[in-house]
Amino acid sequence: MRLLVTGGAGFIGSNFVRLTGRVRPDTHITVLDAFTYAANEASVADAPCDVIRGDVADPGVLDEILAGFGPDDAIVHFAAESHNDNSIASPGQFVHTNITGTFEILEAARRHDVRLHHVSTDEVYGDLPLGTPEAFTEDTAYRPSSPYSASKASADMLVRAWIRTYGLRATLSNCSNNYGPRQHVEKFIPRQITTLIDGGRPRLYGSGENVRDWIHVDDHNAAVWEILERGRMGETYLIGADGQASNREIVRELCLLCDRDPDEVDFVTDRPGHDRRYAIDATKLRRELGWAPEHTDLRSGLADTVEWYRENREWWEPVKAAVEAKYAEVEEVL
Ligand code: NAD
Ligand code: DAU
């Protein structure tokens, strides 16, 4: 089987390529990645794939790659601008990559009659109140809050329209917050881990009470494989591992794992429009495809992640200072 993996030099895509090398070693992977600031050469340098540098919104490069694809081959579309804070500061690139990029992927999949799996986010459903048992399902109405989530919601709508109107062979998945190795240090968990490793204080937006539903990146990617192989065409599957925790709770665990006082944290300027809580009901995926997460102990998953950042300083150190300088432009300690 041949796979085109877009965004394969980013966090989830590069872990997908590595997982595929372990569990489906006969798959031939071509990564297409624009190598934006979010990519890391080291994430694909020793990965089992060919790598092409290019924009998903460029139909020419898509035609070149897909010319050799047959009816059993597929595209797994991870490429995106993925960070909410960046989308608030400058939304234009999110419209280009996430909306126009997905449009060009859809048109290329249609021209070459290639099956597509579109990777999306639970943020398209907006947020949930704190302290209630509600969770998102495949039937929850779309209600995105940020320019990032609105651009992903737009992309999902395009995919659904191409399925219905053109009969495109495609599936979608909407996953909750991922953690694990090779996540950019702008994101919450790697930012706090690398700050703690460097002796600094973790930074919590607002009250720190916002809740995210954490899943290990390998569990997300294992679910993507289940959907690719056995998912029903045209369907959407929610992916989540019952990993709800407040940001304050996550920081407390990280401090303890780094032998630091959990009360030594800074509360800083809140994110505008900050979603309060996400939670996934993954019943459809579990029942229909028999998927279940392997990393069910969040504390031990976080411990492994801390260890990875300790052992791979050369992977993140070159960009850490610039990321913190950018945050310093907008953050004030409350
Ligand atoms: P990431 O920012 O780590 O990686 C994105 C990759 O896409 C980077 O390698 C980047 O260079 C590449 N890219 C950006 N613009 C491109 C373009 N125009 N053409 C080609 N490549 C381009 O993101 P991630 O966290 O790995 O997320 C991957 C996908 O999963 C995204 O679609 C995101 O919306 C979705 N998702 C992420 C999470 C999460 O918790 N991180 C959860 C659910 C869904
Ligand atoms: O839910 C899935 C989404 O999860 C994905 O679609 C996005 O691509 C991914 O970035 C992530 O979005 P979030 O906005 O939830 O992730 P982020 O890591 O930016 O922040 C997680 C939470 O932590 C959020 O409530 C904001 C908060 N936060 C973040 C940073 C960077 C802090 O309190 N302090 C911080 O320094």
Automatic annotation (TrEMBL):
This is dTDP-glucose 4,6-dehydratase. Signal peptide: none annotated. It catalyses: dTDP-alpha-D-glucose = dTDP-4-dehydro-6-deoxy-alpha-D-glucose + H2O. Pfam families: GDP_Man_Dehyd. Keywords: Lyase, NAD. GO terms for molecular function: dTDP-glucose 4,6-dehydratase activity. Belongs to the NAD(P)-dependent epimerase/dehydratase family. dTDP-glucose dehydratase subfamily. The lineage of its organism: Bacteria, Bacillati, Actinomycetota, Actinomycetes, Mycobacteriales. The keyword NAD applies. Gene3D superfamilies: NAD(P)-binding Rossmann-like Domain, UDP-galactose 4-epimerase, domain 1. PANTHER family: DTDP-D-GLUCOSE 4,6-DEHYDRATASE-RELATED. Its EC number is 4.2.1.46. It comes from the Bacteria. Residues 4-295 form the NAD(P)-binding domain. It comes from Dietzia timorensis. SUPFAM superfamilies: NAD(P)-binding Rossmann-fold domains. GO terms for biological process: nucleotide-sugar metabolic process. Its cofactor is NAD(+).
